[in-house]
Amino acid sequence: MRHQRLAVGQELARLRKEAKLTQQAVAGSLGLSPQRVSQIERGEWADPPNSDVINTYLETCLGRLGCSADERKHRRSHVLSLFKAVGTLAGTAPRPPAANQLPRDVDTFTGREAELALLRAAVAQARSTARVIAVHTVDGRPGVGKSAFVTHAAHQLTDRFPDAQLFIDLHGHSASQAPVTPVEALATLLKAVGVPGRDLPASAEERTAMWRQRMAGQSALLILDNAADAAQVLPLLPNTPECLVLVTSRRRLADLDPAPVTIPLDVLPADDAERMLRAASRRDLPADSPVGELVALCGHLPLAIHLVAGRLRTRPSLTVADLVDELRDSVGRLASMRVRNHYVAAAFELSYQALSSQRQAFFRALGLHPGPDTDAHAFAALTASSLQEAKRQLEGLFDVNLVDEQVYGRFKLHDLIAEYVRDLVATVDPDALRRSLPRLLDYYQDAAFTADGLLGPRAAVPTSRRYDGPLPDLEVRGDALAWLTDERENLLACLRAAAQEPDRVLALTTAMTRHLRLAGPWDTASGLHEGALQAARVVGDRRAEATALLELACAHRNHGDYQTAARCAEKALTAWTAVDDGPGRVSALVEQASVQWLVGSYDAARGLLDQALGLSVAAHDQHSEANVLVELGTLAYFCDEYEDAERRLTSALRIFRQLGQEQSCVRVLKNLGNTWYFMDRYDDAEAALGQALTLARDLGDALVEAQALTKLGGVSRLRGHHEKAVRRLAEARPLARRLADRSLEAELLIEYGVALARLGRTDESTQAFDDSLALYADIGENVGRACALKESGDVLVEAGRLDEGRDRLREAMALNEELGERMGTAAVWNSLGRLELAAADTAASARAHRCALAIAGEIHSPLEEAAALLGLGNAARGVGDTASARRDLKGALTIFERIGAQEADDVAALLRELSADGTQA
């Protein structure tokens, strides 16, 4: 596809030069950096630019050429047809949709034209210079419409930032919630761009580094809403000029670095305030209505205007003059009392008093929720009402602008309104929280247990339901994951609210355990399990204590703190043994083995797993037995003991299927496919990996999906199906990038480079290998780097670039020998044998292939054994030893045919050539 991209770029560059424009001038028109324009003209892009960019490029250049309308039309059509062809080719490599978290735009947004123009101009200027990230801060008093402004602006700028549009509320000035720490905010942002929670590093510094690496080269828009100060914002800033960051705060954040463009928002001008009221009321107000006086009584603040507009919209008989009279009294009274934000308070008071007494009670209940938002199910629990009534009340409050609905079905209070509601509850019904909170906690506890049960088999189950109202309709694993993700912050808020109730802390933490294992982040998980551990000790629950210790071990292991993980796992084993719980002991032994494996103590890990397997079999606990077999099989695969790995993994797969636990099969199938791949059993590998891929997609497991696609691409490449390999690997790469899994991306680029070379796409192949080597060098993974050097060396040899190929193969050999990688060593000996044959040194070629043959026989690698025999046969042919050539080639053909390798046809052709020369094959 590179030559199609280059054709588009060359045509655009030709137009620009004819128009006597510089790349910088065109970049300014496009709102891009000059570097990006240069990449487009050179055809160097991973994904086609937005069609709007190409159209604007054409308009900018063609408008200065002075040619006829027909000629402009012809040249435009020519470029667009080339661009369409690129898009069609790019469609063979589907890209996951960009993350878009923008709240919905306000359809009654009014005015702010000057501020929007300033923002657009500043964005264009920043992108044209492309020296620093574009940071724009929007400050102003509460209720002035800062969040609405940046949301509206973001929706207008979305096309310029196609890779991601992210939004996070930092709660810098929320009375009910502490400001979000940089560590917490970075976890949210990284997960939004596809980084699994289990892969998040520990510290803010490490997360900032990962965030900036993940966003490098991405054209993304980020809104940091409600920031407390610069210290909260700085770690969240990407480090690329292709990104735009919009920050809102009640304070000026002048001490940010790079220095931001500050856009101060004041109250609306009178005309804009009147237009906003008329639009938001959705009524045709008489021309002589005192709209000006009404918005003046609202202080021209958008939040207050929307509150009074909600009254006009829902009370057709209410006139503007009536509202003016009511509001004038309220504003004067509150101002005399020196109430903060008295314009908003007055508008809120009128809106609240206009509600029925029943709806007032429901509205006050919103101030009792400990979390950031609510849906109808939680609101029904909070208010002891039916689901239908909860929905009706929330929608009624939304209609009068007392709640926001940023995501469909989820409602939240504006920070200012939330302050007034809490004050109102304290005055009107101070015992409300004591009555309502237990029921809400019961709801979240039961709903979380229901969701947890859909994530896989579990040992812990609730004794009985505590909540007698409706729970969410969760039927499959995907429903459960979505609900737990949506409600995560609310569940954490409930845990904080129940901190003095140890039984509740245990129940809620237990209900979240499986999701925490899947999603992390590990610092959050370890903190929750530490709380559960203390709660278990308070109530004297030894089983709960053992569970908490086990989960703490898992969290610390995933966090990279292996010493703490080992101590917790040892304590968990002691605790499970004390309560005579067999499955618990097995789980603790497996956790201990995982830690030993990670620190390189493979024999110790195997011993612990053998002990766990013996306990499982003796107790006839098939679920535990299968889990241990998976660990033993994976360890054997890791140690290149493929036959043992196959035996263990197939046994685990059989047990899981007997138990009807298909969800547990995905990892087994993936590892079995990998094992058969390295055993050169391509039919079996393709079948297992295909099943793993289907199951991973059903379960929403993006990591296994990307891993399975990568190995399937490798199988296709080894079988000679190079187009199919390229399609599979092109599909896997954006998944790996969204997961920020650089190791997996580097691995798939090796296969991609080989497949592209076989298709004659030399430039793309070279780029793939260069990218792979750069990634491996960056992450310090020498096993993969050795593989990339070997495969790229082979491609160079095939292209006749023997000296360059020799350098790479020698470097690969040195790395493999240093690492003790015998499979890699055998493969490089075969590569060197092929190189020496190309250099006409048949003796050196034969020596290299004999070295490969000896190692391949010892490690049972059919592919390398066959490759060595093929090399020896070719070397024998080179010196006229046809008998030896026939013998070795026949041996190679037998193996290649057995494993289904593409080389079988080539070897058969060589044997036919020997027959044609008069030798009986």
Polypeptide structure, described:
- The protein has 921 residues and is mainly alpha-helical.
- Residues 88-97 and 334-339 have low confidence and may be disordered.
- Helix content is 68%, strand content 4%.
- The strands form two sheets. The chain has a six-stranded parallel beta sheet, with helices on both faces.
List keywords for this structure.
42 helices; 921 residues; 6-stranded parallel β-sheet; two-stranded antiparallel sheet
Poorly predicted runs are: 88-97, 334-339
Largest sheet: 6 strands, parallel
The secondary-structure class comes to mainly alpha
Number of helices: 42
**Nearest-angstrom radius of gyration?**
33 Å
Mean model confidence by pLDDT? 83
Described by the principal axes of the CA atoms, the overall outline is flat
N-to-C CA distance: 43 Å
Number of strands: 8
Strand content: under 5%
Give the proportion of residues in helices: 55-70%
Oligomer: single chain
Strand order of the largest sheet: 1-3-4-5-2-6
